[in-house]
Design goal:
Strand 3, helix 3 and strand 4 form a beta-alpha-beta unit. 32% of the residues lie in helices and 19% in strands. The protein is built from eight helices and ten strands. It has a single domain, classed as Zn peptidases (Aminopeptidase). By secondary structure, the protein is of the alpha/beta class. An eight-stranded mixed β-sheet has the order 1-2-4-3-5-10-6-9, sandwiched between helices. Strands 7-8 form a two-stranded antiparallel sheet. It is globular, with a radius of gyration of 19 Å. This is Succinylglutamate desuccinylase / Aspartoacylase family protein. Pfam families: AstE_AspA_cat (PF24827). GO terms for molecular function: hydrolase activity, acting on ester bonds; metallocarboxypeptidase activity; zinc ion binding.
Length: 307
Amino acid sequence: MNTAPAPYPIGTPGAPWGDAERAEWLSRQTRQRSYESEVLSVIERLRPRFDVEQYGHLDYGSESYPLMAIRSRDWRDDLPVVLVTGGVHGYETSGVHGALQFVDQYEADYAGRVNLLVAPCVSPWAYERIHRWNPNAVDPNRSFRHDSPAEESAALMRLVAPIRDRALLHMDLHETTDTDETEFRPALAARDGKPFEPGEIPDGFYLVDDSENPHSEFQQAVIESVETVTHIAPADDNGEILGSPMVARGVIQYPLKQLGLCASITSAPFKTTTEVYPDSPRVTPGQCNAAQAVAVCAGIDYALTHQ
C-alpha cells in the first residue's frame, strides 16, 4: 500500500514557488481570531503597572498592526536586562499568552532586581490566521539577520538593539504542534521545491539550547521547573527530538545565529527557546500558558544566581 503523503495542494512538486503560488497560498489564509481583542486589550490592562510602547507597525494590504512591547516601569541602568519574546510564530498560542501571564502574575516578584522587556506577539498577522509565516510566506523565525526579509523580525531587532549586549537572559516562547507535521512542514517543502520527509512530533515540553554557546545546567533548571506543570518530551527511538540528538533530558541544540532564530538576537549568556506541546490530551490551554510563565521564572531565577 502506498503511504506516501499527498502532494501539497499548491505548486508543482520539485519546483520552488513563484509569485503565483505565493498569491494562491495567501488567498487561502483566513482571519480566525482577533489580535486587538485577545492581545492588545490585555496589554492595555497592563498599562497602569508597566511602560507600554509601540516599537513598529505592520501594513499588509488593508490591514495594519501595531507592534507592542512592555517594559518595567522603574527601569534602572544598573540592573540586568531580561528579554521575553512570544508569538514569533503567530499560531503558537501559549507563547503569546504565556508571556502576558508572566507579566501579569510574576513580574512583581522581580521588581527592582531586573529590567524586563517583553514583546508578547511578534507576528500579529500570523496570530490572527493561526499560521507560522507572514503574508509573504516568510518564516520570521528564520529571518533574524541584518538583511531580514521579515519586517516582524527587523522591527524586533531594532527594539532590542540598545540592550542587545546588556541582556542577561532571553526566553523565546514557542510551541511544537501536530499541525507542524500536517500543514507547516509540508508547506515549507512545497514552497522550497523539496520533498516532504515525514517526522514525529514530540509529546511534551522541550527546550532548544544554543549549540554554539550551550548552558546545560541552565536548561535543566528550566526543565525541572516546567515539569511541575506539564510533562517533558522523551526522545524518539533514535534518541532524537525532531531529528536533533537529545543532549540532555528534554533539551536539543541548534546553531541559533546561523539559522536566524529569534533566540540569537542578544548576547545574553543565558538563552533558550521553549517548546510547549498543546495537542496532548494530558494538558489544557491553561497548563500550556502556565508552563511558559513558569519557564520564564525559572530562567530568571537561575540567571540571577549564576550571573
